[in-house]
C-alpha cells in the first residue's frame, strides 16, 4: 500500500508539504526569518516575507557558518551534525508532529548547543520521532553562531543568536497551531550553549508570553560575558581582519574569512578585575549581558515559568578524556583551572580534594572544570528561580557513565541527550568511539528520562518534588 502524503499545512507565510512516517509528520527547513545575508548577518532577524505556492519541506535546511569541531577519538558528529552546509536560508526550523490536524498538543522547542560557534538542528541526536510518538510537537531551531551570532559590534544589536531564538518562538506562537500544537503550552529547552540561551530567555522581558516552561540542560546561569570581556574579543577579531570594529566593516567580510580568524580568538585572556572567564577559554563567544541571567530573572518571565534544570556529574571529562589529557594531568593543571575559574583558587582546590580524597589530579581537574563551566551556574539559577517562582523549580542530575574511550568518558557533557531524545539504543551512538560507548544503554533509563521531559511539557510535573534550597531534592538519573 503506498504511503499517504502528509497534508499541506497553511502557515501565515505560505504553504508547506513535508514527510509522513509511522511516528507522524515532519516538516523541515521552514524559514522563520529572512536569510541573514550581507549586512543582514549583523542585523536583528526580520520576519520572512513568505513564498508563493507550496514550499517543499522534505529536505533539511542549510546550517549557520561554523568551523569543524574534532574531539580527539570521540565521534561527536551525532552532536554537531554535518558542520557548515552553505545556503542562504539557514534561519529555519523543523517541526515533528504526531499530526498536523489542528489539535492542541504540548509543544517543545529545542535550542542546540555547540559552544556558541557550531551546531544545527540537522544533528542526528535531535531526531524528534520519540516526542511525536508520545504526543508532543517538537520544534528544532537553527540560529546564528560565531561572529555573526555573538560578536558584540558597534552598530549591531547584541546577542543576535538569542534574537534569532526569540524570533523562532514568535513563529511558534503564531504558527504552531496549524501543525497540531498548542501555542499556550510551549516548553523551550536547550543543552550547553542552548541551555545558557534558555536561561537568558528567562531573564529577557521580550520573552514574556512566548513559553510556559523551560528546561536547562548543562547550561549556566552565570555563563554570560560582561561588556568589557566582549569588547576584548571584538578588538581581537577586528585586528585579525585588519578592519575597524563596526557592523558595516564586518558585513563586508565573507563568511569564510570570518571562520578563518577563529583560531586567533582562542585563548584570549578574558579575566577582568570584576569577572572571570565563564567559559575558561573554551569559546570566545557567549551572550553579552550587563548582569548574569541567574541574577536578572526578575526582569523577565521567569516568575511565571516552571523550570526543570540540571547537569551531569562528570561534565569536565569531555574536555580532557578524548584529547588524552585526563591521565597526564598534574597538580599544576589542577591549580591552573582553579586560578582561571574561581575567586579563591587555593581554598577551592582544598575543598575539592577534601570531597574526593582518593581522586587523582585528572579527576580533580575534571571536577573543577565541570563545576566552573556548568555546575555552579546551574545551582545559582536553580536557587534564584526557586525563590521567585513559588516552588516551580525541578532539579535533576545525570549520573549514567558512558563506557566510551576504554570506559573513561563517564557521565560527561552531552551524554544525557540520547536518553532525553530516547535514542540511546541507536547503533551510531555505540562502539568505543561512540558517545555512549560499547555497552548497551541501561534498560529503562531513556524511558524514565524522556518520560520526565514529556510529562513536564504536558503539565509542569516531571515526577518528583519541587526544589527547596533549604531541603534540596534532586532526581538522579542513572549511575
Report on this structure.
With 479 residues, the protein is α/β, with parallel strands linked by helices. The chain has a single domain, classed as Alpha/Beta hydrolase fold, catalytic domain (Rossmann fold, 3-Layer(aba) Sandwich). Helix content is 30%, strand content 15%. The chain has 15 helices and 13 strands. It has helices at residues 77-80, 129-133, 146-150, 160-175, 193-202, 227-241, 247-251, 255-260, 262-265, 331-341, 345-355, 361-389, 404-407, 417-420, 445-459, and strands at 9-11, 14-17, 19-21, 24-31, 54-56, 92-97, 105-111, 137-141, 181-191, 213-217, 306-312, 393-398, 474-477. The strands form 2 sheets. Strands 3-4-6-8-7-9-10-11-12-13 form a 10-stranded mixed sheet, with helices on both faces. Strand 1 and strand 2 form a beta hairpin. Helix 10 (331-341) packs across helix 11 (345-355) and helix 10 runs parallel beside helix 12. It is globular, with a radius of gyration of 21 Å. The N and C termini lie far apart (45 Å).
